[in-house]
């Protein structure tokens, strides 16, 4: 289906970046906005849609980031926009805990239906991913009567106090912001490129750490990103997630999949756990769920979700009617346009090209990922993380009008999260720019 609105699907540079209008706005930002709020691409947005973002100077950039995996359905998707406008004209807020509304119920019904597990489920809606993770932990502790939460090396779960504790990386997420919430225990992740272990071997290592250092009887939940996001798009070896999930079932702990980055067709299926038929007890979602409006959710087994007393969960804005309208429109667009298949096509195109490039580029340690969630890990001397190279490649892409992001505990990974609706020609052009940047930077680094 072709787009009905939005900017022309092309890359054009009218000025060097940042252009004069962006420069002016950057100066205003410096005088008004807390510097803790950083900037990756110094180009102020004017319009975005499909696979491009147009800035205030008329530069049209290819978007390979989707605002961190949010606008999978496309930025300002016309159907999502119409649904939000229609809702905004009727009512903008009631607080669902005061006067409920149908769209909140319908989002929960949809989530209960599309998440894995053929059992009775319930959902609760929130504003952000971090808030969903906090609530999943609250629910897991309440339902099990246990305190300990198990998380993994390289994990990212948010920036609030509890989710900082759950997150692995110190800079920039944790430095100076402690003390952190207690009863959080970190165990080794499966990272096949760096540990060489099979999934079952890596699971045994993690489980041994849990049993000896925490005690199975104390564990409320094992919380894991099925493919890690900020931590470097680390894809655990096959068998790792199923083994952890099975251990949870045996131990009376809950298995929580944080699908905030991986969910909503990003990896080529509704959820990343589907690739290994893992069925979590609880699943957290946000980012891709509502085409850019702030919506997040916890979905899970009805017995677990229903343990908490009435009034024990909620918030003023959680599941705001505009966000719910956007969420319902996004889910229906994902079905209508089969965006899971689109993600698989993106992998076929981009993954294949990047793997071929890796074969001839020693600075690329690994290309990995699934669907439209792909990453390139840069190394030197056969394995040392090379953050400078990743940074240089990203900067060269930005200067050439292609938005890419870095990630990874060592900052040495470039990640691609294109909108799932990006046109193939535009994606190919973005990859051309990325490949050229990598070849140039790598040959200079060598
Ligand atoms: C982004 C992210 C979060 C936090 O979501 P926010 O909406 O930024 O609070 C949590 N978990 C994962 C896996 C994420 O990618």
Blueprint of the fold:
Blueprint: H1 20-32, E1 45-49, E2 52-55, E3 60-63, H2 66-69, H3 78-90, H4 102-114, E4 121-126, H5 129-144, E5 148-152, H6 161-166, E6 184-187, H7 192-195, H8 199-213, E7 219-224, H9 240-251, E8 254-258, E9 282-285, E10 296-301, H10 302-305, H11 321-336, H12 339-359, E11 364-370, E12 373-380, E13 384-385, H13 387-399, E14 402-403, E15 405-407, E16 413-416, H14 424-445
Parallel strand pairs: 3-14, 5-6, 5-7, 7-8, 8-9
Antiparallel strand pairs: 1-2, 2-3, 4-10, 9-10, 11-12, 12-13, 12-16, 15-16
Helix pairs in contact: 3-11, 4-11, 8-9, 12-14, 13-14
Bound molecules: pyridoxal-5'-phosphate.
Pyridoxal-5'-phosphate (PLP) is lined by residues 128-130, 133, 156-158, 225, 229, 258, 260-261, 286.
EC number: 2.6.1.19, 2.6.1.22
Organism: Crossiella cryophila
Pathway: Amino-acid degradation; 4-aminobutanoate degradation
Description:
39% of the residues lie in helices and 17% in strands. Helix 4 (102-114) packs parallel to helix 11 (321-336), helix 8 (199-213) runs parallel beside helix 9 (240-251) and helix 13 (387-399) packs across helix 14. The protein is of the alpha/beta class. The chain is globular, with a radius of gyration of 21 Å. Strand 15 and strand 16 form a beta hairpin. The strands form 3 sheets. Strands 4-10-9-8-7-5-6 form a 7-stranded mixed β-sheet, sandwiched between helices. It folds into 2 domains: 20-63 and 338-445, Alpha-Beta Complex (Aspartate Aminotransferase, domain 1), CATH 3.90.1150; 80-337, Aspartate Aminotransferase, domain 2. It has 14 helices and 16 strands. Pyridoxal-5'-phosphate binds at residues 128-130, 133, 156-158, 225, 229, 258, 260-261, 286. It catalyses: (S)-3-amino-2-methylpropanoate + 2-oxoglutarate = 2-methyl-3-oxopropanoate + L-glutamate; 4-aminobutanoate + 2-oxoglutarate = succinate semialdehyde + L-glutamate. Keywords: Aminotransferase, Pyridoxal phosphate, Transferase. Its EC number is 2.6.1.19, 2.6.1.22. It comes from Crossiella cryophila. Belongs to the class-III pyridoxal-phosphate-dependent aminotransferase family.
């Amino acid at each position: 289906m072709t787009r009905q609105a939005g900017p022309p699907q092309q890359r054009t540079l009218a000025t060097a970046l940042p252009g004069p209008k962006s420069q002016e706005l950057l100066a205003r930002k410096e005088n008004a906005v807390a510097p803790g709020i950083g900037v990756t691409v110094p180009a102020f947005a004017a319009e975005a849609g499909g696979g491009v973002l147009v800035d205030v100077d008329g530069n049209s950039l290819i978007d390979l980031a989707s605002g961190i995996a949010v606008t999978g359905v496309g930025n300002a998707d016309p159907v999502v926009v119409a649904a939000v406008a229609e809702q905004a004209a009727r009512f903008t807020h009631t607080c669902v805990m005061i006067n409920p509304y149908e769209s909140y119920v319908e989002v929960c019904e949809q989530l209960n239906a599309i998440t894995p597990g053929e059992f009775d489920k319930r959902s609760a809606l929130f504003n952000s991913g971090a808030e969903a993770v906090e609530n999943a932990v609250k629910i897991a502790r309440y339902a099990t009567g246990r305190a300990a939460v198990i998380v993994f090396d390289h994990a990212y779960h948010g920036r609030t106090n509890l989710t900082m504790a759950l997150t692995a990386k110190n800079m920039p997420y944790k430095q100076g912001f402690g003390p952190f919430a207690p009863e959080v225990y970190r165990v080794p992740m499966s990272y096949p490129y760096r540990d060489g272990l099979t999934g079952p071997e890596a699971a045994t290592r993690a489980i041994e750490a849990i049993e000896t250092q925490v005690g199975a009887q104390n564990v409320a939940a094992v919380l894991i990103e099925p493919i890690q996001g900020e931590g470097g798009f680390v894809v655990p070896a096959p068998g790792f997630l199923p083994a952890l999930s099975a251990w949870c079932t045996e131990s009376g702990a809950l298995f929580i999949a944080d699908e905030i980055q991986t969910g909503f067709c990003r990896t080529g299926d509704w959820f990343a756990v589907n690739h290994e038929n893992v069925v979590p007890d609880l699943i957290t979602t946000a980012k891709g769920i509502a085409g850019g409006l702030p919506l997040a959710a916890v979905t899970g087994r009805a017995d677990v979700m229903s343990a908490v007393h009435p009034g024990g969960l909620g918030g003023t804005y959680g599941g705001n009617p505009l966000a719910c309208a956007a969420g319902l429109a996004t889910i229906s667009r994902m079905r209508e346009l089969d965006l899971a298949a689109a993600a698989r096509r993106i992998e076929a195109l981009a993954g294949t090209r990047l793997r071929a490039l890796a074969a001839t580029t020693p600075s690329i340690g690994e290309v990995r990922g699934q669907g439209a969630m792909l990453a390139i890990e840069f190394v030197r001397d056969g394995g040392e993380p090379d953050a400078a190279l990743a940074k240089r490649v990203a900067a060269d892409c930005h200067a050439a009008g292609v938005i890419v992001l870095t990630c990874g505990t060592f900052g040495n990974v470039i990640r691609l999260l294109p909108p799932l609706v990006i046109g193939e020609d535009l994606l190919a052009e973005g990859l051309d720019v990325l490949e050229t940047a990598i070849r140039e930077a790598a040959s200079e680094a060598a």
